[in-house]
Amino acid sequence: MIKETVKLSGRIIITDPRYICIPEYWGRGCDDFLKGGAREDMFLITPTGIGDTMNAVFDNDNSLLGTFGVDSGVFGVFDLEKLKLEKWFDSEKFRKLPKICYTVIEHFEGECCVEIEFPAGAGWGEQYKIVGDGSLHWETRQIKR
């Protein structure tokens, strides 16, 4: 089941928005993120469906592109260049963020969507993932709860 879509272009980052927000914004304005949703040509955010998780990003050949953790129960894909212009973006925090906390995809041109799966026997309930389809096909997967 597909929930929402957004078109992105350029350098994109997949991470927990809490990792890249200034603390004051996260404390007061994070309701927008916690609800999930999209902003055209900027970001797409979704809950994990199960709380805190460790995730991976795989391409169409099932090759690992990177990993990212989620501590806030939500994650998203962001246009990194547009993100840098947002008042809530903490560039210093992002610069110091360990690489295990985010995945960057260079030169992406395409559409990203949230898909909700109900895997039999997983024991986790529904799982939310973001899928990118365009110049590169990729998808996120929860690898650890």
Give an overview in words:
- This protein is mostly beta strands.
- It has one domain (2-144).
- It is 14% helix and 50% strand.
- It has helices spanning 23-29, 31-34, 80-83, 91-96, and strands at residues 2-15, 37-39, 43-47, 53-59, 64-70, 74-79, 102-117, 127-134, 138-144.
- A hairpin with a 4-residue loop joins β4 and β5 (64-70).
- The radius of gyration is 14 Å and the shape is globular.
- The mean pLDDT is 85.
Note the topology.
Elements: E1 2-15, H1 23-29, H2 31-34, E2 37-39, E3 43-47, E4 53-59, E5 64-70, E6 74-79, H3 80-83, H4 91-96, E7 102-117, E8 127-134, E9 138-144
Question: What's this entry about, in short?
Answer:
This protein is mostly beta strands and 145 residues long. The protein has four helices and nine strands; from the N terminus they run E-H-H-E-E-E-E-E-H-H-E-E-E.
